[in-house]
Design a protein that fits this description.
Number of helices: 10
Strand content: 25-35%
Helix content: 40-55%
Distance between the termini: 12 Å
Strand order of the largest sheet: 8-9-4-19
Number of strands: 20
Amino acid sequence: MERKLRIALIILVMVLVIVIGFGGIYVKKLASYNNILPEYELGSKLKGSRLTILKVGDHIHEVIRDSEGNIVESIPEGADENSYTKEQVPENSEESKTKENYKKAEKIIKGRLKTANISNYEVRLNEENGNIYVELPDTDNTDTTLSHLLASGKFEIVDTNDKTVLMTNDDIESASVLYNSDTSGVVVYLDVKFNKEGKKKIRQISKDYMEINDTENEEGTDETTTKKTVTININGEEFLSTDFHEEINELTITIGSASTDSNSISEYVEQAQYYATLLSNGEMPLEYEVETSDYIQSIYANSLYQYILLGIIALIILISIVYIIIRYKKLGLLSSIVYIATIALVLILIRYTSTDIDLNTIIPSVILVLINTYINCNVLNNINKDDSKEDRKEKIYNIYLKIVDLLIIILIPSVIFTYNSSSLISSIGTLLFWGIIGIALMNVLFTRTLLIEEARK
């Protein structure tokens, strides 16, 4: 009875994994039910891509200075124009066009794509002229993504009155999006964390610019006065002006207002994510502009081809399952349940690791399926009816130990691939790595246990 209960529990766990892997988990979030599992990432070979060339900007700007040399936006109406000077200034000086700045710009662009959870991309740099080639999946958001890449990302906290710069990008460690729910709805925040030096600065600033109560009106009640305020600038534009109510170590800025409308909340989240992406990766050392942006068509972007590819993989899985069940009957059926659950687990891991599903990653997917088939067949082939219960148990145990050794050997190149700078090779390595981990865990913890329990009969 205890043995049957153990087998039933294992099968129940497997069914649960299968339901989650192929179906998902739906929960009520904000105003609707959503699958909390991340969406699959289709690669450029299956979806088509956009190849964009970003070139170092060569525009000339007119700069106006007053008699004291300060830069002003325009000459005030009625002012003496002779007291102002105008000069033509290139947006990128010749001194700034260096390989060091080109590489820094490339690194920032890669960082922004990664922070924005865009994994399926290729970024290449021409170190001679600074051109950066960006290949992205062509989606409804591609133009928005490209505009985000071009933003300067410059961050400053300045004194509102005298414009003294108090903090810059160099003081930021990271930025992220936070949420909070209250009676008014969902509130979205941009949370900016500072490095060690930045924390010292923001603590001192919050002291110096703290709101204070220091006057009393005729009724004898306090009137609130503020010493002075700071202005936060992002991308060279004023983001907000504020004072402080207490000493702080990080900035938590409300984006929009509390809302129960899912569209408004999504808009606020998108805005907060945009600023978090910029602030987490530093200021661009040069100004770039789009030179060309061309769509690269893929024949596999057609849904028919995608279904054919999925059908081929499904056929391989089906044939291997039918073979195992026909040949090994009940043992094969139990093994196949874990086999399907292993595939479901790998699908879950693919979602959470943002692994690209592409022609190049379909091949290792098929390899993983065949490895799993080999494992099950190898185990079942070595179980003889004439063996004693203990002999069967020992054989199964020893075979799985050998298989684990094999999987560990395969893990080594997969780890190397995972940390490759190429997103394509990295995706292949990530798929192999987590696929092998999933296969090892499922087979060692569940398939082996099921077969041993069944072999004891």
